[in-house]
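[Meeting: bench + compute handoff]

Bench side (C.D.) handed over the final construct sequence. Compute side (W.E.) agreed to return the predicted structure before the next meeting so the bench team could plan truncations. Sequence as handed over:
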Amino acid sequence: MFTLTFLGTSASVPSAERNHPALLVEAAGQRMLVDCGEGTQRQLLRSGAGFRRLDRILLTHGHLDHVLGIPGLFSTLRLRQSSDVMAIHGGAETLDIVIRMLAGIWGEGRAPIPVEFAALAEGRFIEAGEFTIDCFPVRHRDTDSFGFVFQSPARRHLLSDRLAALGVPDGPLRGELAQGRPVVIADQTIVPEHVLGPPSGGKKLVVIGDTETTDGLSKNVTDADMLVIEATFLDRDASTARDYGHLTATEAAAFAAANNVKQLVLVHVSGRYEDEEILAEAARIFPNTRIAADFDHIVI
């Protein structure tokens, strides 16, 4: 299960209703940010999420509207005497931007809290038992951008009627079968396949920040339970979208429809349009679309 709290859903220019990009993802007791735009620390407070157990930031890319909230957040964490190490994951060029930003405030190699920088390369970079996180490259102007795939594994549950029919008592033997190991009862070997149901419960969340194209991204997005992706422009302004390296609502919806996505959530919303215009354009192609607003809370 993944819990999402949208802390900032604007495009590069914020509005009274929308803050710069930031998304809080919670899974198996862990809490992490995807991007940290200016004002993210206040959004954490306003949302009720707070700062506890926040120890990881995943950066889609290094544009300032996605990273400028890091110094303020770090200052607050220092004042709260947080002893946790903050891990920041991003492309090498993105991390260099953050490192230079922090050095300009606190001095080279210094930060107000313990920080670890981890450069991303395509593939799995978090293996947390209850969930995994993979990253993949995304094209957005001149940046080293990445998208993220969060997955929780599907589980196979023991079938009580099969257990009873085979005479497997409550206790450690059932635990062995649940772990995928065979057991022996009265000289009869019982293998997990005899008593386990089909896989169920696995979830897949894909988060893509700014991107100028969806070409080559299908293998990462196929069958996602939820896709969070930008839709900065409407189709009538497609040429402008190309100039600035962004998607239209039409392109985002068509991408979701082509890849068997269950739900599409649009972010990076431009103040030049009404939400209803964006939603109408996307929903014509992919009906199960919503536009995220700041402080929206979604559980997958």
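W.E. noted at the follow-up: The chain has two domains: 3-155+199-299, 160-194. C.D. will use this when planning the next construct.
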